[in-house]
Amino acid sequence: MAGRPARLLVLLLSWLGLLEGAKILTLSLFGGSHYLLMDRVARILQDHGHDVTFLQPSGLHFISGFKVEKKYQTVLWFPSEDYKQEYKKYIDFFLNEGLLGRDSFANLLKFMKLHATQCSHLLRSTDIMGPLKNESFDLVVVDGTDGGAFLFAEKLGRPWVAMLPVTFGVLSFGLPEPVSYVPAFYSPLTDRMDFWGRVKNSLMFFMSTWKEWSMDAQFDDLIREQFPEDPKPELLHLRQKAELWFVNSDFAFEFARPLLPNTVYIGGLTDKPVEPIPPEFEKFIASFGEVGFVLVALGSMVSSLPSQILMEMNRAFGQLPQGVIWKCSPSHWPKDVKLAANVKIVDWLPQNDLLAHPSIRLFVTHGGMNSVMESIHHGVPMVGIPLFSDQPGNVIRLEAKNLGVSILLEELTAETLALKMKQVIEDKRYKAAAVAASIIRRSHPQTPAQRLVGWIDHILQTGGAAHLKPHAFQQPWYEQYLLDVILFLLVLTLGTVWLCGKLLGLVARWLCGASKLKKA
Questions:
Q1: Is the dihedral of CA 442, 390, 406, 287 positive or negative?
Q2: What is the DSSP string of 446-485?
Q3: What angle do CA 231, 242, 225 make, to 5 degrees?
Q4: Rounded to an integer, what distance in angstroms lies between the CA atom of residue 237 and that of residue 240?
Q5: Distance between CA 388 and CA 411 in Å, rounded?
Q6: 75: closest CA among 127, 22, 138?
């Protein structure tokens, strides 16, 4: 209720024509691709006349070579050095032991507990919370995968919208999820399931729900500390409280599924105008002539891979006639491994510009959503090597849409990787499917940035998005699933059967009695 007066004021000002730009706070408490997406959101909103402030942690980006001219105001949060070290340790685990097929969920819970503890420090930080509360922001834009960000917005008492930087299913926020054709997040299935596929998906849906509940539970101590009065907020309810959900995906990639009016696809938001690539890349590409080149990038947070994996990938690339531009830190390259003659490794590369180059033949990617959207935008087929999080699900969609093929990291050898790369390059069906997906991506009536700004302006001008949310968000769970109706009909049916049985018994006894009287 705290944000309602502000929303009514915004509505009144918009009617009077006095509203030129809103005060918007964006925050990203994670690094990597999450930070890249939220940075892009902040810049777009600032460019469209809003006054944007970006709250971000210092020292958690882990993005080599990333540079941006920040047009918005920045508020830095300085996590403790112990937290930074622990954070880095968990990231290293997910990128090494975890990505080799070992169960990493227990470590993910520990990471979320660590993050929740640090968010508690942030919410207690008067030098950050005090000034931000005094700013009276009209809207807060949060990372939808971060429970701490929702609690931060609730603590400020401002309305918020959420960005989902990954695919559906990572968390629940009220969307209908018919398991007969919507794959659970951890499910290796597509939207076309046979009977046993639906059985497996149903079981995995319950498993996915349990995992989500377990991750939410890591914030319980933070909630008890920061919200001592009852009723205490629940993360599921806070996610449903978001005015809008912006999903970093697109119809060209996702399986068709039910959406709510406050759910908007903005996949491709990180797309930027194509610029000429640096001369060092152009010269390398030109040296391979008509055969073109292959781009390899396994994500913004991957600085190194196990030496054995690097050796196998290097051998595989050496079997291609194309040149290979590989985002792989030269400082981490094993000194005893000779780089293939057709391979160029770099700390940083202009990924979007290289994907737009006419000589590109293939993109070898980890399957992160930003990378997939950029590849689809430019019509480039892919070989997916998923590492963790939503990436396995993304490469399943990639294969189902015929946009490329995938290979698990623990199964990667030089021979299998070379075979899969040649398969995608030589089979024109993959390129045709990528071009078709690109046409779908580009043919929307509005660009992703226009959809983002348009919908945010809409809720600012209308005082919120209550008209976009179903009443189901306010119903108890047993009403949503009609359990009270089912119980009523069951009792009514059983009661009717019982009553009919009693009546039949009375009639039978009366008939038997009448028969005995006649015989007498």
A1: positive
A2: S-HHHHHHHHHHHHHHHTSSGGGS-GGGGS-HHHHTTHHH
A3: 35
A4: 5
A5: 15
A6: 127
Is residue 363 a contact partner of residue 155, using CB atoms and an 8 Å limit? no
Quick: pLDDT tens for 426-435: 999 999 999 9
Separation CA 452–CA 44 (nearest Å): 9
Tokens for 431, please give them: 């390129």
The answer to whether 343 touches 318, Cβ cutoff 8 Å, is yes
Nearest to 412 by CA among 316, 273, 269: 316
Model confidence pLDDT, tens digit, residues 253-292:
999 999 999 999 998 888 888 999 999 999 999 999 999 9
Instruction: Give the pLDDT confidence of 149-161 residue by residue, as tens digits.
Output: 999 999 999 999 9
**What is the pTM assigned to this prediction?**
0.85
pLDDT at residue 164 tops 80: yes
Nearest CA among 386, 397, 343, 352 for reference residue 370: 352
Q: Which of 415, 438, 311 is nearest to 363 (CA)?
A: 438
Task: State the Cα–Cα distance between residues 232 and 334, nearest whole angstrom.
Answer: 52
* Helix or strand (DSSP H, E) at 47: helix 32-47
What three-state secondary structure class fits 93? helix
Residue 57 has pLDDT above 70, yes or no: yes
Strand ranges (E), 151-201: 160-164
pLDDT at 153: 94
Q: How far apart are CA 385 and CA 416, in angstroms?
A: 12
